[in-house]
Design a protein that fits this description.
The chain has 4 domains: about 45 residues; about 160 residues, no CATH class; about 80 residues, no CATH class; about 120 residues, no CATH class. The termini are far apart. It is built from 21 helices and 9 strands. Helix 7 packs antiparallel against helix 9. A hairpin with a 6-residue loop joins strand 3 and strand 4. The strands form 2 sheets. The protein has a 6-stranded antiparallel sheet, with no helix packed on it. A 3-stranded mixed sheet has the order 5-9-6. By secondary structure, the chain is of the alpha+beta class. Helices cover about 60% and strands about 10% of the residues.
């Protein structure tokens, strides 16, 4: 018994030491976590002014893009690639002789600064959007056209969405986006003071924001009792987000190889096999002779486009040795894979030599380009390696990457009439996977984007989340 007692005492001492060490370690972890949380909150508060400036830049950039689309003019790249409000102001001042955005829209709103009377960021952005909407509605020709009025209503919703992305998430969760005062046919027929007098619209919006801020005030003692509940909710939300991210990475790692192989198989099937194509073998596979014939047709067609009809005789010479080609000509579905074969076998000599590659040199592009251009979607999206930083002669889609979240982007049809005709001729391949439309006019030559589509980036691939709405003229 005498020898056993010291052993038990030493064991108890070790157990106490371990418990104290674990408690100290836990307190240190808690202190580090709290300090990190406070640092993140301080950084977020310090970055609020820059976020407001970035939100204003995105709102003005989208407004300028609408004005150019409404006037059917090509948007300059220096306006699209502006990274600060100062650069944007200088760009629209240089182009004011064509668009008059600076003299009739930007300068009147920014010089008066009526929207800056809002008490918080959300109120200021809402007043800015309403001021822009009121100024744009002063154009009588725009208000007489139903389609242009509808596009103005769509712009109002887009600007509200941009503003909601930069305000406090708690504010966004508590109150949704305000309704568009110009949505619906009744807004175009019923008289409204905001449609004719922009100052009245701004004053009413400022009054509404004041009333809403007064209604949200609570007694001081009640707010003190709920402060700790807010802190606990924030901590729990951060922990839950961390667990969700951990589970997501594990699941993504397990399914990554399977998804990649599925993408490769679908891509090769779409590029090689045309839907409903009949071949002499009867199995739907393209033979080597058919692939060579399709490549020759694509090269001849692109060469004829680049030379403006100077070499139209090259295409018949390439197809003369094949006597079966005249029989395949009346089949409309057989010509559809020609565009897809160009995406797979894309080394035509003439188009590559004439591509205007040196154009982006004079324009100072930012570190991360905001606009990219693509030709056709493949497998429900666009591969990063197929995108170009500048618009090519055969680019159909313009992709604009979000400055706030680089993994999100919007896309629309480029304003290029020759490309529109080519896209309409091959609508099944060029437009079906990325756009929603009704091809009622068989003689249409122009494509108008009613609502841009949305993309999300993952593993070098821009996946289409929402198709773009277009119509033909």
């Amino acid at each position: 018994m005498k020898s056993i007692m010291p052993i038990k005492q030493r064991f108890k001492v070790k157990q106490k030491f371990k418990l104290k060490y674990a408690a100290v370690l836990a307190s240190l972890k808690l202190a580090v976590f709290i300090s990190l949380f406070i640092g993140v909150q301080s950084i977020a508060l310090a970055q609020q002014p820059s976020q407001i400036e970035q939100a204003k830049l995105d709102i003005w950039t989208e407004t300028a893009s609408f004005v150019y689309r409404d006037a059917k003019l090509a948007e300059p790249q220096n306006i699209v690639n502006a990274t600060t409000l100062k650069q944007f102001e200088e760009a629209i001042r240089q182009e004011d002789s064509k668009s008059q955005i600076y003299s009739k829209l930007y300068r009147p709103i920014e010089q008066t600064g009526t929207y800056k009377r809002g008490k918080d960021a959300k109120a200021q952005l809402d007043l800015l959007i309403k001021s822009i909407n009121a100024k744009l509605r002063e154009n009588e020709q725009r208000m007489k056209d139903i389609n242009r009025r509808q596009q103005l209503s769509d712009l109002y919703k887009q600007l509200q969405q941009i503003a909601s992305d930069y305000v406090n998430p708690a504010v966004v969760a508590g109150a949704g986006l305000p309704d568009d005062p110009t949505t619906g046919d009744a807004a175009f027929t019923a008289p409204d003071a905001t449609e004719t007098d922009p100052d009245t619209a701004v004053e009413s919006a400022f009054a509404e924001n004041q009333l809403s801020s007064l209604s949200k005030k609570q007694p001081q003692d009640q707010t003190k009792t709920t402060d700790w509940m807010t802190t606990a909710a924030l901590l729990l939300s951060i922990l839950s987000l961390g667990l969700i991210y951990f589970l997501y990475t594990k699941i993504n790692a397990l399914n990554k190889r399977m998804d990649q192989r599925k993408k490769d198989i679908d891509y090769l099937t779409q590029q090689v096999n045309a839907p409903g194509r009949k071949t002499p073998s009867g199995n739907g596979q393209l033979s080597r002779e058919e692939i060579e014939s399709l490549v020759q047709k694509a090269v001849a067609r692109e060469t004829a486009k680049l030379t403006n009809g100077s070499t139209p005789a090259v295409a018949p010479k390439a197809s003369v040795p094949a006597p079966a080609l005249p029989k395949e000509a009346p089949k409309p579905k057989v010509e559809l894979p020609a565009e897809s074969e160009e995406a797979l076998l894309n080394p035509p000599p003439a188009p590559v030599a004439v591509q205007p590659e040196p154009t982006p040199a004079p324009t100072p592009a930012p570190d991360k380009p905001q606009s990219k251009f693509a030709r056709v979607p493949v497998n429900g999206g666009f591969h990063e390696q197929d995108l170009h930083p500048t618009q090519q002669h055969d680019s159909i889609y313009e992709i604009r990457v979000s400055r706030k979240d680089p993994s999100k982007a919007a896309f629309r049809i480029v304003p290029n009439s020759p490309v529109h005709r080519t896209a309409i001729e091959s609508a099944y391949l060029s437009l079906k996977d990325a756009c929603q439309y009704q091809l009622n006019n068989q003689h249409a030559t122009r494509i108008i984007t009613d609502e841009p589509g949305t993309l999300s980036y993952q593993d070098g691939f821009w996946r289409i989340d929402k198709k773009a709405n277009i119509h033909f003229e």
